[in-house]
Amino acid sequence: MIQAFGASDPGCIRNNNEDYFLISPSLGLYLVADGMGGAKAGEHASKLAVETVQEVVASANGERNAATLVYAFEEANRRVMDQAAHDPAMEGMGTTLVAALELEDELLIASVGDSRVYSYEAGKLETITEDQTWVNEVGRRLGLDEESLKSHPMRHVLTMAIGVSEDLRIHTYPLKAAPGTQVLLCSDGLHGVVSEEQLAQTLARSATLEDKCEELIAAARELGGPDNITAVLLRA
């Protein structure tokens, strides 16, 4: 049985929170989405994407597998694109989306965009997902050094998101989570602000999942909280 806790905070700069998360132990489904778009379009995109994935997994009659989760992401993409096309106020909206789905003997991770999933086991923090960003998919392949990438004008540009293209690229990863393994799903308001060293230090503490989530959000706020901050923490 997986333990889970999640928390979200608008951060120190923004008035609204475009992040959205879901914890559904009955479905074995855990989600984080980071919306984008003008007005309240980002908030709408992230909520719609998460609720669509939840609906598709719930209607799969217990068929928890990679095909179900991939289809759920594809359906979320279709619905976000459709609403954006039919409502001028929602034009240009999109969202990142990461998921963890409990299968019989593993967690299935799925990702679109630059929200991340980490695992923490035996004192080691490991990044499970790959960012779909200009920095990761273009800048590094061009051989740009890490210091240059940190300040590059394209550093925040996504190469893929839910709601922006019919040609959706979904990354999936199987994760064997041994008893005691922690799995962190988070938006870039956390991982883009708090160092991986500090993430690991927090996860290493003998504290509740709730305390750790609150500490992670507090750390991002102490560092300026320039974006919405969301953390969903699981423990096998």
How would you describe what is shown here?
By secondary structure, the chain is of the alpha+beta class. It has a single domain (3-125, 159-235), classed as PPM-type phosphatase domain (Phosphatase 2c, domain 1, 4-Layer Sandwich), CATH 3.60.40. The protein has helices at 41-58, 66-86, 134-139, 146-151, 188-191, 196-204, 209-222, and strands spanning 3-9, 19-24, 29-36, 94-102, 107-112, 116-121, 124-127, 171-175, 182-186, 229-235. A 5-stranded antiparallel sheet has the order 1-10-9-6-7. Strand 4 (94-102) and strand 5 form a beta hairpin. Helix 1 runs antiparallel to helix 2. It is globular, with a radius of gyration of 17 Å.
The CATH class label is Alpha Beta
Helix content: 25-40%
Q: Please tally the helical runs, counting DSSP H or I stretches of 4 or more residues.
A: 7
Q: What are the segments in which pLDDT stays under 50 over at least 5 consecutive residues? A: none
* CATH architecture label name: 4-Layer Sandwich
Per DSSP, what share of the residues sits in E-state strands of 2 or more residues?
25-35%
